[in-house]
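wait is this the right file?? whatever heres the structure
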């Protein structure tokens, strides 16, 4: 069996895949504390707002057209349409929409985006099968738990280094856990669904090397939701997946990891759920840059410094900041959002939270390009050691008059250490929806999320984001 360094090592004595599956099967709404419930609702609020805006992106309009082929195949809602389809179809489109804004939540230690995958899965199946809001909330918690723990066990930093995208790789396992619970699978059934999911696992980082072929990254959330639902549905039919999908000899950790730590699959009794280890994104760019933007805010006195007075910007951070994010001339929105030089430059010119600043009309903006050329990045050993538990970085800015300013930032705004409050989250969603027609008010959305566990709560929430079905003639 191959692991890093050519050493052979057997799987753990205990079937830790089964342990995690049993723990998730036992996780029900009654086991959720008030803090758990509040956090899940915050995650849902963030998700539905980002998903609704993402549904209007050009590539998502194409997905909505594709989903129209399956109209009437189920009751699940495709956001921003009158379509009702099978859950796997709706979840693919909705999860892709939510993952397509670079504003969906992040589980830092697995470097993955669980909200897009897990919540899209939960709402699609919840509406299809008329499942209570409480059960949906428990299934969401289970999906975050599965995705986060699998990611930490496999080793997210190694996964990225060797070319796999964590959201794509781990997302299906989170979706399968969520779907399995909503379909009534027990621990053995969830583990079997993971066994089926294992043969669909993957997701290349090649999009980060290509200036044009970047849209596939948007689909990585959708692939996970779609495949996880299929795996759970097949397991519910009695189609058996192999055991030990996460920690077996040819399981996820051995196939994709370099130094897997399977004890991460086991949750200590006093440990908080993974939903409390989530960062929310105020800025529409790669999560890795958020601490850099916060540091840039400090050295520019809240972006009040005239950008023309800047002669150089040096950034220190994790190694992948230098190896995967230094494209200076992006020609797609995704590539721009994944470019450190472009993201810092557009933050200086337009502000850090303006989604439109990454539009195609900005790719030739002389102000942005001049600033992007002044950005350089170096690996910082301390920030590398802290990654991925912390997405930290520092910024050293030099002005034309010879002044040097520096700020170090370990935890950015939106992390568990510096969480966005409810008002900031509502402002984010209201701002995203403001350019759209026929969208609900933020008060309506907040009210529906707050009553999610009440009778009819899931349908009340989802139907806020659905267009009315055309009347029969």
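ok assuming it is, sequence goes like this
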């Amino acid at each position: 069996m191959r692991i890093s360094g050519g050493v052979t090592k057997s799987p753990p004595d205990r079937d830790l895949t089964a342990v995690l599956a049993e723990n998730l099967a036992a996780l029900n709404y009654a086991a959720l504390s008030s803090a758990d419930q509040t956090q899940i609702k915050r995650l849902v609020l963030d998700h539905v707002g980002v998903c609704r805006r993402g549904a209007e992106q050009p590539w998502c309009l194409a997905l909505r057209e594709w989903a129209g082929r399956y109209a009437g195949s189920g009751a699940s809602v495709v956001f921003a349409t009158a379509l009702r389809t099978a859950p796997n179809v709706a979840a693919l489109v909705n999860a892709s929409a939510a993952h397509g804004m670079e504003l969906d939540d992040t589980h830092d230690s697995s470097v993955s985006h669980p909200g897009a995958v897990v919540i899209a899965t939960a709402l699609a199946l919840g509406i299809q099968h008329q499942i209570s809001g409480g059960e949906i909330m428990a299934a969401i918690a289970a999906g975050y738990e599965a995705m986060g723990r699998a990611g930490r066990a496999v080793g997210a930093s190694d996964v990225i280094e060797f070319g796999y995208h964590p959201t794509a790789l781990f997302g299906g396992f989170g979706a399968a856990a969520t779907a399995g619970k909503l379909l009534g699978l027990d621990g053995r059934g969830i583990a079997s669904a993971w066994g089926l999911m294992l043969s669909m696992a993957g997701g290349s980082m090649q999009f980060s090397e290509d200036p044009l072929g970047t849209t596939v990254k948007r689909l990585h959330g959708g692939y996970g939701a779609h495949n996880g639902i299929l795996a759970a549905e097949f397991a519910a039919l009695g189609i058996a997946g192999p055991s030990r999908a996460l920690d077996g000899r040819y399981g996820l950790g051995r196939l994709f990891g370099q130094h897997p730590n399977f004890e991460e699959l086991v949750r200590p009794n006093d440990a908080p759920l993974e939903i409390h280890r989530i960062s929310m994104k105020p800025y529409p760019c790669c999560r890795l840059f958020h601490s850099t933007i916060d540091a840039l805010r400090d050295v520019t006195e809240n972006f009040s410094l005239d950008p023309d007075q800047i002669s150089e910007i040096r950034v220190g951070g994790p190694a992948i900041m230098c190896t995967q994010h230094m494209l200076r001339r992006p020609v797609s929105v995704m590539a721009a959002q994944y470019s450190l030089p472009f993201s810092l430059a557009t933050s200086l010119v337009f502000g850090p939270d303006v989604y439109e600043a990454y539009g195609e009309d900005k790719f030739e903006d002389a102000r942005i390009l001049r600033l992007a050329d002044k950005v350089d990045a170096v690996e910082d050993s301390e920030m590398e050691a802290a990654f991925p538990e912390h997405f930290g970085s520092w910024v050293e800015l030099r002005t034309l008059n010879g002044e040097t300013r520096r700020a170090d930032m370990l935890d950015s705004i939106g992390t568990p250490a510096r969480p966005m409050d409810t008002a900031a989250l509502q402002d984010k969603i209201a701002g995203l929806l403001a350019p759209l027609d026929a969208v609900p008010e933020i008060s309506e959305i907040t009210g529906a999320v707050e009553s999610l566990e009440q009778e009819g709560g899931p349908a009340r929430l989802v139907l806020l984001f659905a267009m009315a079905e055309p009347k029969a003639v």
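The longest strand covers residues 310-317. so i think its the right one actually
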